[in-house]
């Protein structure tokens, strides 16, 4: 009789803590009525691992603690911390404003923010819109896209406009090139500084050409200005929704 194979390796889940700064806030009741904090945080981490690392052996092991802080504040959520300890702040007011779909919005925001705890960012040199797009790409594939998201870009949108705009573009690249392409994109930003040539390596074309092709399938004319040449100034990446994350 063949020997019993060893169990598969476990994902490197961190310790989780939660702090609720105002238990009397109606958003606190909505949170606790709709999700179990430990299960919700574990699910968010596993979604990040599935779409960015695929196997436990590839997943980062540096994150030892994720603390979730629920508090009244403007915006939606943000993440900060050290390499080993991360803190996610989520708005209780935002939960109240989405009370009709509280569970889906809570989980969607958690997935987005937990991705920021684990994704690579090319030593801090990757465009902010790409970082946000990867986080929403994972949210999209966790079936947690909110109803207001739209796949179709506008003529003035850029590939790195961020959030769902970039997430759907990355999803299109994933569909064309095969599952694991965005995983490979994330891996390529582990140790090297950002360079747009990585899109040529992963998807066969410069990212601007891919973006034009993506827009064309929606019948959208490309009105994005050409990239500035050296000396013309820096581009600014305007993040269109108030997640305000900090990446450490």
TrEMBL record:
It comes from the Eukaryota. InterPro entries: Uncharacterised_BSP. This is Plant basic secretory protein. It comes from Favolaschia claudopus. The lineage of its organism: Eukaryota, Fungi, Dikarya, Basidiomycota, Agaricomycotina.
């Amino acid at each position: 009789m063949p020997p019993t194979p060893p169990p598969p390796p476990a994902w490197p889940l961190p310790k989780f803590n939660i702090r609720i700064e105002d238990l009397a806030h109606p958003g606190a009741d909505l949170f606790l009525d709709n999700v179990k904090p430990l299960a919700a945080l574990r699910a968010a981490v596993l979604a990040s691992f599935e779409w960015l690392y695929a196997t436990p052996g590839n997943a980062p092991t540096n994150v030892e603690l994720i603390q979730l802080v629920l508090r009244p504040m403007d915006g939606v959520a943000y993440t900060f911390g050290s390499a080993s300890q991360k803190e996610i702040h989520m708005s209780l007011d935002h939960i109240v404003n989405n009370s009709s779909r509280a569970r889906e919005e809570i989980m969607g925001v958690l997935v987005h923010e937990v991705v920021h705890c684990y994704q690579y960012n090319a030593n801090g040199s990757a465009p902010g819109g790409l970082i946000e797009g990867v986080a929403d790409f994972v949210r999209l594939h966790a079936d947690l896209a909110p109803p207001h998201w739209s796949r179709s870009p506008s003529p003035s949108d850029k590939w790195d406009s961020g959030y769902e705009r970039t997430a759907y573009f990355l999803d299109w690249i994933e569909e064309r090139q095969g599952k694991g392409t965005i995983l490979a994109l994330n891996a390529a930003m582990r140790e090297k500084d950002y360079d747009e040539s990585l899109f040529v390596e992963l998807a066969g074309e410069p990212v601007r050409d891919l973006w034009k092709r993506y827009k064309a399938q929606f019948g959208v004319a490309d009105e994005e200005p050409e990239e500035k040449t050296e000396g013309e100034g820096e581009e600014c990446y305007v993040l269109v929704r108030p997640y305000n994350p900090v990446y450490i």
